[in-house]
Amino acid sequence: MASKFLQHAKQTGIYWLARRLPTCKEIAPVMSESLERRLSARERVVLKLHLLVCEFCVRYLDQIILMHRALRARTAQLDEPPATPATSLPPAARERLKRALTNSRTEELGTERDRQD
Amino acid sequence: MRHEAQSSVRHETQTAPLSPPDPGAWVDRHGDALFRYALFRLRDAALAEDIVQETLLAALQSHHTFAGRGSERTWLVGILKHKIIDHFRRACRERAQDQRDEAALEHEKLFQQSGEWIDHWDFARGPIEWHATPAALLEQNEFWGVFQNCLAGLPERIAATFTLREIDGLSSEEICEALNIKANNLWVMLHRARMHLRQCIEAKWFRANATQNSSGGGIKHGF
Fold first, then answer.
1. Chain B residues within an 8 Å CB radius of A78
2. Which residues numbered 36-55 in A keep a CB inside 8 Å of some CB on B?
3. Considering the domain boundaries, does residue A62 fall inside one?
4. Is residue A103 situated within a structural domain?
5. Mean pLDDT: which of B142-146, B152-156, B177-181 is highest?
6. Where are the domains of chain B?
7. Contact call for residues B42 and B81 (beta carbons, < 8 A)
8. What percent of chain B has pLDDT over 70?
9. Shortest Cα distance from B215 to chain A (angstroms)?
10. Is A56 contained in some domain?
11. How remote is the C-alpha of B152 from its chain's centroid?
12. Which residues in chain A are closer than 8 Å to B135, comparing Cβ atoms?
């Protein structure tokens, strides 16, 4: 069957190519660095070829990009409007903060200006 | 209203500054937001509280620089951001010598140990399909709990670089400058962080959910 022949040829091709490319362990840091700097032309070609024959590394690259995007979105969600009051300052901590600030403020007022009545 | 704040020499003035600071009100208005911001980055409630306190004290010292430009929240978050970077810088300096825990982050077992395909992904341990999108993950609070735990498993220096890069969104150059490290060094640490976190999330979330839901086949989604 033609498809079987093609599949065999494809597998032999993948095998041939994969044997001549850097290993996954060597490519993993390059994938991470592709998020940090522009890869050299040679690095880009080698990475593309490796991804052509390695499903695991395709997933790896997709997933570190996904983590990056999800974290950016999560940060925006948490830093912007507090629609979800999931994390709030514990009441005891709130009191400690106020006390520390009041003490410091009394000192500051004491040194900088007269007491106001 | 007089613009006392415009003259920096006169900040120890006898007359009242532009808006007299009310730190108690700061805590009420911005305490939760500042604490949440710090906790997400530092993952330690006591430390986050300390840094928020440092921030508010610094704000009190320098309220004359605020002068009503922009919002009070943005001003305070700006100070907090710097305090957090200062903390990371200190932590990195203190930990610079101690690289044993970083060496322990090796991921040898993820790759084949021998044979024709040595150093390629181990078939049983290599990345599996996640079927996830950022939007879907945002909906799942439990996922972020798992994520925080995984992040907490990183050595401090590596966690600091990852946090500045992926949570604060600083560029490589900005991080190198803030932490006084070389770019190559930063890239190695980010690679280790990503390798560890990807693996940890996969094991504790995606694989765990897949087996939990194995009767239905495929990975469970909460949406």
1. 36-37, 40
2. 36-37, 54
3. yes
4. no
5. B142-146
6. 24-94, 99-214
7. no
8. 78
9. 24
10. yes
11. 10
12. 73
Task: Evaluate if residue B7 carries a pLDDT over 50.
Answer: no
Amino acid present at B151 = L
CA distance B101 to chain A (A): 19
Q: What gap in Å lies between CA A31 and CA A68, rounded to an integer?
A: 13
User: Position of tokens 């320098």?
Assistant: B62
Structure confidence at residue B11 (pLDDT): 42
Task: Assess contact for A63 and B217: CB atoms under 8 A.
Answer: no
pLDDT of res. A1: 52
For A89, which residue in chain B has the nearest alpha carbon? Answer: B32
Q: Which CATH architecture has domain B99-214?
A: Orthogonal Bundle (1.10)
Beta bridge partners of B121: B111
Residues within 8 A of A (CB atoms), B 156-185 only: 166-169, 172, 183
Measured distance CA(A104)–CA(A115) in Å, rounded = 15
- When the candidates are 1.10.1740.10, 3.10.129.10, 3.30.450.30, 3.20.20.370, the CATH number that belongs to B24-94 is 1.10.1740.10
Does A112 score more than 60 pLDDT? no
Has residue A74 been placed in a domain? Answer: yes
pLDDT above 50 for B2:
no
SS3 B111: strand
- Give pLDDT tens digits for A38-86: 999 999 999 999 999 899 999 999 999 999 999 999 988 877 655 455 6
Domains: count for chain A: 1
Instruction: Give the residue from chain B lying closest to A99, CA to CA.
Output: B24
Query: Residues near A10 by Cβ (< 8 Å), separated by ≥ 6?
Result: none
Query: pLDDT averaged over chain A?
Result: 82
pLDDT band at residue B73, thresholds of 50, 70 and 90? confident
Report the DSSP beta bridge partners of residue B111: B121
Q: Which chain B positions have a beta carbon within 8 Å of A90's beta carbon?
A: 45
Q: Which residues of A touch B172 (CB under 8 A)?
A: 36-37
- The answer, yes or no, to whether residue B5 has pLDDT greater than 90, is no
Structural domain harbouring A16 = 4-80
The whole-number pLDDT of residue B104 equals 65
